[in-house]
Specification:
By secondary structure, the protein is an alpha/beta fold. The protein is 30% helix and 23% strand. The chain contains twelve helices and 16 strands. It has helices spanning 8-30, 66-74, 99-105, 125-132, 143-149, 151-159, 189-200, 209-215, 247-250, 267-275, 293-302, 314-322, and strands at 43-48, 51-57, 82-85, 110-113, 136-139, 163-170, 175-177, 204-208, 232-236, 257-262, 279-283, 307-312, 328-333, 343-344, 360-368, 371-378. The strands form three sheets. The chain has a nine-stranded mixed β-sheet with strand order 11-10-9-8-12-6-13-16-15, sandwiched between helices. A five-stranded mixed β-sheet has the order 2-1-3-4-5, with helices on both faces. Helix 3 (99-105) runs parallel beside helix 4 (125-132). 44% of the residues are buried.
Amino acid sequence: MASEAGDHSSTWQDEDADRRWMCAALALARRGLGNVWPNPAVGCVLVRDGRVVGRGWTQPGGRPHAETEALRRAGAAARGATAYVSLEPCSHWGRTPPCAEALIDAGIGRVVAAIEDPDSRVAGAGIRRLGAAGVAVERGLGAAEAAEINAGFLTHRRLGRPLVTLKLATSLDGRIATVTGESRWITGASSRAFAHKLRAEHDAIMVGTGTVVADDPQLTCRLPGLEHRSPVRVVLDRQLRISAGARVFAEARDTPTWVVTLRDADPVLRERVRAAGAGLIEVGPDQKGRIDLTATLQALGARGLTRLLVEGGGRLAAALLRARRIDRLVWIHAPLLIGGDGIPAVDAFGITALAGAPRFEPIASMALGEDVVTTFRARE
């Protein structure tokens, strides 16, 4: 965002300041990930005379919005300030008044928005309303990062389903256990803490029946201070064969749990799931009689989920890859080799030619102790 004329050094300084404040807004937006669905995670920073006078981010459950929070904190100091927002301010009435109107009423002089809101109720209307009220509006700064932060919300609005992230924690040769089933621990403590942070940043976590039967996992976030950020637990159980004593059922009244099954599942077993306090989602079968994953994702989207983390097991990972429903891949590699007789992270899914293989591009990488975690984005 360059100035049309004037002192170039001043322009560069202004651009540097804009980038700095937008980075702050984006950092605030990340705080809402996994905690604000079905709403987007938005950050807002109000700056006047080079000083932050208010800041806010979307609160749990999606209300209040980031702009409302920032204006509340700023009070009268918001008049004449610049608002840096990671997403276009909303322009429609819902449970709260439009943020665009709130910014206008507060006397904001300029708004810098990273990206446009694709929601059909907004889609540029917020920007137009601000402009009509005489507020200077600029957009596009930090757009790529803002889009990645809210990739879940954008996917939900575009496709009606959540963004699907597959997390794999493996040896260098892609194994999750030895031939005898030993798996604790392939990755280190830092990687395991990172995995719990991933859970806190997602609306829901999905596993298949085999993972629950074999491991009886809790599927919760157990990082100190973030225990309340445990995602919804989604379990695929075609025949409802998971034991009533499994943790996902025993703790279903503490952590929301949804079981996805077929519509013709045993009525007695369906009632057992409901009696445990878990929700039941019934979908049709695919061509091979298995749970239709496309229908499942649409059903989860209809319930407002925007970010879904898939943790296991190998058959579920393969099925989602086969269906081309993995949008992000987070792969944690530990520096050891297990060999071909070990248990693979992904089962066979019918690739006979490289041209048909799902392809990904790396977008981030970092070291976690001795392990390395790389994040990939699916190529369209």
